Each structure stands twice: as C-alpha cells, then as structure tokens.
Amino acid sequence: MEISYTTTPSVLPPLRLWSKNVQNRCVYDDIMSYWLAYDAITFLIDIGRYKPAFHDFLTDEEKEYELRFKPVISRRRFVVSRAILKHILAKILPKMKINDIVLIRDNDGRIHVKDVPHVNICLSYYGTSIVITVGKIKIGSDIERVRPLLDKKITSSPVFSECRFAEGEERMRQVIHMWTLVESYAKLYDTNPYPLLNSCLPFKNAEFVSYYIDQNMIFSLASIQKNLTDVLVWLEI
C-alpha cells in the first residue's frame, strides 16, 4: 500500500508503507539472497543493539575517529554502523573475512570498501535509528522523523512551495518527505544540500523511492537508475 497526497507535488514519489514486522525481518544468512535479487538493500538498525564487543571490529584508525564524537549517542552510532556494515559486507563479499574489510572515506565523506569498487555504501541516522544501504550502483539516502521543521530558512525556500497548500499533519509529512529527497539527492551527488533549496525543482537526473516507516519516520533513497529494485529490511542481530 502506498500513500498518495491529495495535493502532492509531482516531484514527491509515493510513500511506501513499511513496518517492522516478520515479513520485513532479515538475518545475516538472508543477506546474499537479497543481494542477488535487488540493486540496493537498506538495513534498518537501532543503536540499542550496541555491544562493547563491536569495538573489536574497528581498526585503530576507526577507534581514534570515534573519539572525535562527544555525545555518547553519536559514538555509539559510529561503532554500531561500522561493525554491522562489515558483517553485512562479509556476507555479500564471501571471499573476504571481516578483518580483511577496510573501509575508507573519500574527500566527499563517502564510505567505500578498499579495492572493491562495485559495492556502493550510504549511511544515514536519525535519533537511535541507523540505516545502512549497500548497492550495486551509486546511491544517496536520508531518514527523518516526521515532526515540525522549524527552520524558516529551509521551509520558506522555493523547493517547499507546493507544500504550502497542505495543512496540519499532511503538510508536516510533505515537508519532511521533501527534506529527505533533498538530503538523499545531495548525498547521491556528493554536494551540499542547502544550495538545492534555491530552486523549486532541484532534482535533475535522479530517481527516488520513499518509505513511511511505522507512520513515524520517512526514508528516501536516490539513484540515477530508473526502475531501481530495492528492499528495506530490519536486521536482526
């Protein structure tokens, strides 16, 4: 089932209703079958899954990088995302052991697997939620909780002009949905999202899919591939 807005701007893709149920559950042994079937897989994880033992999967450089984050939640997000990402990659790259997987960050902040150019990665966070997307093509993603977006410099920009016709909860959902498109598009093209707000139609050469997670959060995925096949699952650790 999808949500269609009564005043939807044409740029907004339908919201796919998604919930954390058994059908959307994934365990590590399922990952390869998903990888063979889809262009991109997105894994939803909560930092409540944090375990001190996850540090064992970090390199010395990653352990130093973790210390740059002052809030505990940010440090835990870093540890959980890197440790679980390596476990995911070990399933789709069966010739590599977890300790052989080296994550590198390019000048744009994008994460890559060293010497494995055909796997694309994008991470996004909101609160205690982490989304890890691995794809066969370059992707960008963003997750946000549906809430009032209070920054007037953002909401008064041309990109949100169509949202002004909606009211109440519908408008709030549209604004957050649009913001996830802006963020995911910016990540796709390794650019700053804020200059995109100066245009009423900033999305050129991009395709989107969006999910309405438990009627609470919106996740959007951007790519340049039409008819992208993708799946969103929650990973049981």
Give the ordered list of helices and strands. Answer: EEEHEHHEEEEEHHEEE
Can you identify the CATH class?
A: Alpha Beta
How many strand segments? Answer: 12
How would you describe the oligomerization state of the chains in this entry?
single chain
Q: What is the first-to-last residue Cα distance?
A: 28 Å
The CATH level-2 architecture is identified as Alpha-Beta Complex
- Radius of gyration based on Cα positions: 18 Å
Give the secondary structure arrangement, pairings included.
Blueprint lengths: L1 E2 L11 E4 L6 E2 L4 H7 L2 E7 L13 H7 L5 H21 L10 E3 L5 E3 L6 E7 L2 E7 L4 E6 L6 H4 L12 H21 L18 E7 L3 E7 L6 E6 L2
Parallel strand pairs: 2-10, 3-12, 4-12
Antiparallel strand pairs: 1-2, 4-8, 5-6, 7-8, 9-11, 10-11
Features:
237 residues; alpha/beta; Ribosomal Protein L22, Chain A; five-stranded mixed sheet; 5 helices; 25% helix; 26% strand
Describe what this molecule looks like in 3D:
- It is a single chain.
- The chain is an alpha/beta fold.
- The chain has one domain (8-235): 4'-phosphopantetheinyl transferase domain (Ribosomal Protein L22, Chain A), CATH 3.90.470.20.
- The protein contains five helices and twelve strands.
- The strands form three sheets. It has a five-stranded mixed beta sheet, with helices on one face. Strands 3-12-4-8-7 form a five-stranded mixed beta sheet, covered by helices on one side.
- A hairpin with a 5-residue loop joins strand 5 and strand 6 (111-113).
- The protein is globular, with a radius of gyration of 18 Å.
- The model is unreliable at 4-9 (pLDDT under 50).
